[in-house]
Amino acid sequence: MAVSDKVEKQAVFEGDIKKWMELEDVTIAQCDKILSATDNRLVEIIVDSIKSDSEKHKVVLGFIIEALNGTITLEPDELGELSALLDEHLEIEKGSIDMAMREYENSRHFVIRHLLSYLLADEKKHYKLLGQLKDFQRHLYPYA
Asked: At 27, which helix (H) or strand (E)?
């Protein structure tokens, strides 16, 4: 692939990421509209969760743009120093997953089961993200 093609593809990719960030802004604004239009606690919890996720998505998307431009670094020592803490956190998340699964199985309430399902998926996501940090560590520093 020619350098100009690679640069062009990166420019398109970066443009798409910026459009995605704009969509997250639209999502956040829509969540604010819904939140101001309701007093229902269940709706507030769900919509606020979506809003919070969209705010986090914008941070991650911004990081992706920074990484494309080479302004982000990750040194093996940085993750090596955190290894024990990451392992501890993985165990905590595993405990949360186990508890969420148990409570989901024990509940028969329609709304509660949906909320527990959401929490279970989120805890699994946390576990996966921590696992990815461990993968980065193994890739950068295979003897850790």
From this structure: helix 3-37
